[in-house]
Design brief:
Elements (H helix, E strand, L loop, with lengths): L2 E6 L3 H17 L2 E8 L8 H30 L4 E6 L2 H11 L3 E7 L8 H8 L8 E4 L5 H8 L2
Parallel strand pairs: 1-2, 1-4, 2-3, 4-5
C-alpha cells in the first residue's frame, strides 16, 4: 500500500502517467494523489489583472484535476485526493513529497516526441535526492502496455 503521486495537466503524457499509477495502485491496494501545478505569473504592473489571470489558471488546473479524478473513480471505484498548488513546479513537488511521506512513487510521463517536459528533465537529473522512486513512462508506450506493466 502507499500513495502514487501524479502531476496532471492536459498532456497525453500526464494521462499515461495517471493510467499507470491507477493500475499500480489498484494492484497494490494503494491510492493515487493528483497534483495540479499552476505557474505563478511574474508580472505585477496591473495587480488586479494578474490576480484574475492567476485565478483563471487555478480554475483551469482544478477542472483538469477534477476531470482526472473522475476518470480514476470511474475506472477504479476509488476517489483520489486532489491538490492544486501555485508556484514553481519542481519546488512544489519537492515540498509535497517532504510533507507527505506516504508517497511511495512519483509517476511522470515523458513526451512521445521532442524534449521532455520541465519536471521530467529536472527530476531525472535529481533522482538521488528524492525521498521515493521516480517512474517515467515513455510517451510512445501504448495503453495496453501500460496496463500490462502496471498490473504485473
Amino acid at each position: 500500500m502507499g500513495v502514487y503521486l501524479v502531476i496532471v495537466d492536459e498532456t497525453d503524457e500526464a494521462r499515461k502517467a495517471l493510467r499507470f499509477a491507477m493500475g499500480w495502485a489498484s494492484k497494490s491496494g494503494g491510492s493515487v494523489q493528483i497534483l495540479a501545478i499552476v505557474q505563478a505569473e511574474s508580472f505585477s504592473a496591473f495587480g488586479a489583472v494578474q490576480a484574475t489571470i492567476e485565478q483563471e489558471a487555478r480554475d483551469r488546473a482544478e477542472a483538469i484535476a477534477t476531470s482526472a479524478a473522475g476518470n480514476v473513480y470511474s475506472e477504479s471505484g476509488k476517489m483520489p485526493n486532489i491538490a492544486v498548488k501555485v508556484g514553481d513546479g519542481d519546488r512544489i513537488v519537492r515540498e509535497y513529497l517532504t510533507e507527505n511521506p506516504e508517497v511511495i512513487a512519483l509517476v511522470l510521463g515523458a513526451a512521445a516526441e521532442g524534449p521532455s517536459g520541465p519536471l521530467v528533465t529536472h527530476f531525472s537529473a535529481h533522482t538521488g535526492s528524492l525521498p521515493c522512486p521516480l517512474v517515467i513512462l515513455p510517451g510512445k508506450m501504448s495503453n495496453e502496455d501500460i496496463d500490462r506493466i502496471a498490473g504485473a
